[in-house]
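REQUEST ID: PR-0412
SUBMITTED BY: lab tech R.K.
PRIORITY: routine
TASK: structure prediction, single protein chain
INPUT:
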Amino acid sequence: MLKISNDLVKRINEHVQEAYPAEGAGFLLGANGEVNDVVPLTNARENEARHNRYLITPEDYLKAELKADTLEMDLIGVFHSHPDCPNVPSEYDREWAQPFFSYIITRVDGGKVVSHRSWKLAEDRSKYDEEEIIIL
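STATUS: complete
OUTPUT:
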């Protein structure tokens, strides 16, 4: 189960809608399954691939880790959007996923958020399991 405030969901929505028709992405900061902050990122993927891929650079990762440390939180996951397609993890998502992270995938159709779903990678990395999102 992943808990997140309505205000943070709004920040995710704004970011992924602004990124549309490209994928938008960022980090989830918090602890114990509760998101306490988000770190929206610029999609570093090359222009021609941004509509169905995102890239987080090592520098982005370091900045997020430092911010989490300063706030006495942890990196607990990633959010990203799927423009005009279902918010189900792709094979590409699975190959690049990190264990123990929550992955919020937001469906954005025509530039507007439709829904959010959250996923966790199975320990054997073979698949994702959906986790419930509680919006506080």
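NOTES: The domain at 2-135 is CATH 3.40.140.10 (Cytidine Deaminase; domain 2).
REVIEWED BY: pending
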